[in-house]
TrEMBL record:
GO biological process assignments: fatty acid biosynthetic process
Record organism: Natrinema salsiterrestre
A molecular-function term among this protein's GO annotations: (3R)-hydroxyacyl-[acyl-carrier-protein] dehydratase activity
SUPFAM superfamilies: Thioesterase/thiol ester dehydrase-isomerase (SSF54637)
Protein name: Dehydratase
Amino acid sequence: MSMSMPPEEGDVHTYERTFTTEDVRQFGEVSGDQQTIHTEPDEDGRLVVQGLLTATLPTKIGGDLSYIARTMEFNFHQPVYTENAIRCEWTNESVEERDDRYTVTSSVVCTNEDDETVMEASINGLIWKE
């Protein structure tokens, strides 16, 4: 993050992604989460996306911000299905400036195409000053 744009309370960042069947299969191979809901399509041909794969959405935003997470707490409200766009909205709730870094507390809400909340998170971390 550039010093000309330090993080501020109230900043909002968004990212949207549609998970594919191949994403779910590859994550299952890496994570070992091979439950039937992740490997056998439902009557509509969809797989349920692993919760931790869904949790990569705020991880993507954090990476863009050079945010180093210290704690992450997730609440999963509804299943996420393949081929359904998920929108992730990250909000900086508090920012504390220190000599060498910013300590940031953020909230995250992920919604599906029907604007239903599928996941919420609270993340505490830091952004180093350059």
